[in-house]
């Protein structure tokens, strides 16, 4: 099977992690630019030939929506420049919480984004820790769904924490927490929460043994940090020895930073799928890079080799 030349490019929102992926892979990041118009319109362009190449475009689609639009335009430009294949590397897949109609007269945003990416001409998607696994089924093209467990598990093991327990911040996260608890041979705690409205948590209770345990709350994303900080404070009130959180995508909107810094959380372990804000106090955060995992899987996909061995769970 002929192997086409590989090139890695980045949109503006994820250049910080794309540079690390390219360096880990052993290549330079491809040259591209974005022409901006005074009305806010913009036009991405490749500054080198990509004819016949397998092109990987790195971009997480966290807010603003311009990040998604720029990715769509880059994919379209790559096809019009006669790329052999175009693969979107989306460490964070935005709109993933809109995976179903949970109330009347709302959109299914994740499906719409999948349709937009396919219409732009993408041949494959590579992402990490989707908010809902079923989003893979929204695509009629291959989706490489990677897991941050390959980063978190070694880090947690190196902490050598005694009396470790793994907690799910809500019932929806129980499957993820259970996988970590089995792999780390630690008991699991489940939080049951009642929302007053979107992004506002009302009452929260714990199911499982909390007293004298060192707890790590596992989740796929932190948005406003309301759930995780309330859970951490509750655990400490119930007699926990310490509470940490390990979360893949640090969305961290609104009062999230202040809530975390004022909470009982001793450490928040995140990945660099989304950059932390430079003007905020990040002293409680530990950032682990996803570059190694993505670089390895990019190489395997390009060489038509299996990637299942890269999954811990």
Automatic annotation (TrEMBL):
Its EC number is 2.7.6.1. CDD domains: PRTases_typeI. PANTHER family: RIBOSE-PHOSPHATE DIPHOSPHOKINASE FAMILY MEMBER (PTHR10210), RIBOSE-PHOSPHATE PYROPHOSPHOKINASE 1, CHLOROPLASTIC (PTHR10210:SF41). Pfam families: Pribosyl_synth (PF14572), Pribosyltran_N (PF13793). Residues 6-121 form the Ribose-phosphate pyrophosphokinase N-terminal domain. This is ribose-phosphate diphosphokinase. It is an enzyme of class 2 (transferase). It comes from the Bacteria. Keywords: ATP-binding, Kinase, Magnesium, Metal-binding, Nucleotide biosynthesis, Nucleotide-binding, Transferase. InterPro entries: PRib_PP_synth_CS, Pribosyltran_N, PRTase-like, PRTase_dom, Rib-P_diPkinase.
